[in-house]
Amino acid sequence: MYSLATVVVLVLGGFAVPGSTAPSLKSGAASAVCQVEGHLLRQMRHKVHALSKDAQKHDEDTETRLVGKDLFGGLEESGSCYVLKEVIDFYLGTVLQPDQLHAKYSHLNDVKEFLAVLMKRHMSACDTEDKTKANKNIERLKQKVEKLGEASEAKVVGEMFILLQEITNRCSTAGWKPGHQGRSRINN
Predict the structure, then answer these.
(1) Which of 27, 31, 66, 152 is 20 to 30 A from 82 via CA?
(2) How deeply is 8 buried, as exposed, middle or buried, from its count of CB atoms within 10 A (0-12, 13-18, 19+)?
(3) Where are the alpha helices (DSSP H) in the chain?
(4) Is 58 in contact with 113 (CB distance < 8 Å)?
(5) Are 95 and 146 in contact, with CB atoms under 8 Å apart?
(6) Per-residue pLDDT for the chain (188 aa), expressed as one digit of tens each?
(7) Residues near 93 by Cβ (< 8 Å), separated by ≥ 6?
(8) How much is the pLDDT for 3?
(9) Do the beta carbons of residue 170 and residue 80 sit within 8 Å?
(10) What is the C-alpha separation between 138 and 130, in angstroms, rounded?
(11) How many CB atoms lie within 10 A of CB 94?
(12) Do residues 37 and 173 make contact, with C-beta atoms less than 8 angstroms apart?
């Protein structure tokens, strides 16, 4: 029997959208794939939620928000997916690396594998015309993480569900669109 992570990798691989059929970004990258199928995100929703709830028990900083409105301030719609891609890349490459985290959070490996495949297959081409503003927002997030020190691990893992919601809302086929009244998300 396959592990859940293996099944997720297989499912994500099977649903990759060819560049020629993907909607183009406003930034002019006509052949870029930068849209996640909503059902792929729903498949990991429960596991990401459980991981976040577990980590929130260890997060003593209730004032700092990493993935919130500040992260997207001043950006066009296409810039939001670029920012999320860069945040995931930063988290995977830096914050979520320590081995002791895997022992502390039971679903972390599965979620990291899911995010890595999501990046590679669906978000790798996300780009924006306004990289200066987007990169400033990303840099502010990195500074917050650095300021939190060791507490940043619990904060980042605790906000994984918010991160998944933002990907759903901003980068997926099932996401919220301006003017839609049924938007449900955790407050920023």
Answers:
(1) 152
(2) buried
(3) 4-14, 38-56, 69-72, 77-90, 99-104, 108-118, 131-148, 151-158, 160-171
(4) no
(5) no
(6) 445 454 444 444 444 333 333 333 333 333 345 778 778 888 899 999 999 999 999 999 989 999 999 999 988 877 899 999 999 999 999 999 888 888 899 889 999 999 999 999 889 888 888 899 999 999 999 999 999 998 999 999 999 999 999 999 888 876 544 443 333 333 33
(7) none
(8) 52
(9) yes
(10) 13
(11) 14
(12) yes
- CA 98 to CA 103: how far, in whole Å? 10
Task: Write out the two tokens for 171.
Answer: 């980068």
| Residue with the two structure tokens 């459980």 | 50
Output the pLDDT for position 175: 58
What values do phi and psi take at 96, rounded to 5? -95, 15
Place of tokens 């500074």: 143
Instruction: Report the alpha-carbon distance of residue 141 to residue 56 in Å, rounded.
Output: 19
Closest-CA residue to 126 (of 24, 21, 38):
24
- The maximal CA–CA distance of the chain, rounded, in angstroms, is 47
Q: How far is CA 103 from the centre of its chain?
A: 22
